[in-house]
Design goal:
Elements lengths: L4 E5 H17 L3 E5 L7 H9 L4 E4 L2 H9 L7 E2 L8 H7 L2 E4 L2 H13 L4 E6 L14 H9 L4 E7 L12 H18 L5 E5 L4 H5 L9 E4 L1 H4 L18 E14 L22 E7 L11 E3 L5 E5 L4 E4 L13 E6 L1 H9 L4 E5 L3 H11 L7
Parallel strand pairs: 1-16, 2-3, 2-9, 3-4, 4-5, 5-6, 6-7, 7-8, 8-9
Antiparallel strand pairs: 1-10, 10-11, 10-15, 11-14, 12-15, 13-14
The protein binds pyridoxal-5'-phosphate.
The site of pyridoxal-5'-phosphate has 14 residues, from strand 9 and helix 9.
């Protein structure tokens, strides 16, 4: 094995999906699994599907392509608004997409007709997070136009929260979404299949029992992959937080001062690092850096270890709290990545990916073979 690498436990992902899907199901909500943070990895998508998600969603054409090449069942949901220049790809790769612009709907309709298809859309409304979505007062006029487009079918109404503005899903904003959907249904005499209310930030609202019953669709990534809701990043009960682990190798261990020696200017990234003068410490240098991962998003699996800095290719760990000689040249150190770190590690070509756990029995065999059973799971 060469380091760094990311180990991916598919059995844990499947388990997490089953927990989240079960909870949502009790409240009449179908879950689409979101694979954008793992670049549309087909094995991970399949683990989500085994755990009960009804379909797979991703934000990028390249990822949808990867899912298709990997044989993951379609249709897929395209999560990011398609560009006007990309409507043909949108129609080709996704059966369903999130939309908010009249010009794009028109072009999508034409693209769908060119392929003898009808493309399904979920119209996104702005509920305050200020990312994608049309203002509620523009909804009726837009639907009026969209209904005249023969290549488009309006499958639902949706909203996205907690991604840009950090606005949490609430009974009030979900009620607003349902009211808008019902006003639209009454006005045009139609019935929407989907009211797509939430992502991983909406789990607490579901559990509280205050989710309006007509919200029947969730698009969930992080809660399945990392086992956390996303308003406070609490571990979600009954899920694993460590389906992904990053492993790096120690290259050097020396006792060094905590404060740099000599006159100081900027570091490699244009910052002047803060000085902490804590005397001397045992520092381990690892083969992991900013070219591999978002370093700020890593937590050492061993709580005695502390990240004190990183450059493109090195990570510095204070290992003073570990036992004498425990961390030495060649030792492999494990980290838990958060969402940003996982995104970067999945995207970095320098980080190898190792998948295990198609089923639990095979998973534990694999893990023993690789010798990282001594983790905290
Ligand atoms: C990324 C994304 C999601 C999934 O968000 P998680 O926090 O990972 O559950 C859902 N909907 C949209 C529109 C997204 O862009």
């Amino acid at each position: 094995m060469t380091y760094p690498y990311l180990s991916i436990d598919l059995a844990k992902i499947e388990h997490n999906a089953r927990v989240i899907v079960g909870l949502c199901k009790e409240h009449g909500i179908a879950v689409t699994g979101v694979t954008k943070v793992v670049r549309g990895d087909p094995d991970i998508a399949r683990a989500m599907l085994r755990g009960g998600v009804v379909s797979i969603a991703d934000s990028r054409f390249e990822n949808l392509h990867r899912l298709r090449e990997g044989g993951v069942p379609e249709p897929y949901l395209l999560l990011r608004l398609p560009p006007l220049s990309g409507v043909d790809q949108a129609v080709e790769l996704a059966g369903l997409s999130l939309e908010s612009e009249p010009a794009v709907l028109e072009a999508l309709s034409e693209a769908a007709l060119r392929r003898d298809q009808v493309h399904q859309v979920i119209l996104m409304v702005e509920l305050g997070d200020l990312r994608e979505g049309l203002w509620p007062e523009d909804l009726i006029p837009l639907v009026d136009e969209a209904l005249a487009l023969p290549g488009i079918h309006i499958a639902g109404l949706g909203a996205n929260l907690a991604c840009l503005g950090g606005v949490m899903p609430s009974e009030a904003n979900m009620r607003r979404l349902v009211d808008l959907a019902e006003a639209m249904e009454d006005h045009f005499g139609l019935r929407l299949d989907w009211i797509s209310g939430i992502n991983s930030s909406g789990l607490d609202l579901i559990v509280s029992g205050r989710m309006p019953p007509r919200v029947n669709h969730a698009r969930i990534g992080e809660a399945i992959l990392l086992g956390r809701e996303t308003t406070r990043r609490h571990p979600w009960p009954g899920t694993f937080q460590d389906a992904f682990r990053l492993h790096a190798e120690v290259l050097e261990v020396k006792r060094k001062p905590t404060s740099p020696l000599g006159e100081r200017g900027e570091d490699a990234f244009g910052h002047v690092p803060p000085v902490e003068d804590g005397g001397e410490s045992w520092r381990a240098l690892l083969n992991l850096g900013r070219q591999d991962v978002a370093v700020e998003g890593l937590t050492p699996a061993d709580p005695r270890l502390r990240i004190t800095g990183a450059s493109s290719d090195y990570l510095v760990l204070d290992v003073s709290a570990a036992g004498e000689g425990e961390i030495k040249v060649g030792t492999v150190v494990d980290f838990h990545p958060n969402y940003a770190a996982l995104l970067a590690a999945m995207t970095s070509e320098y980080v190898k990916k190792e998948r295990a756990g198609r089923d639990s029995a095979r998973s534990s065999r694999q893990f023993m073979k690789w010798g990282f059973m001594n983790s905290d799971d």
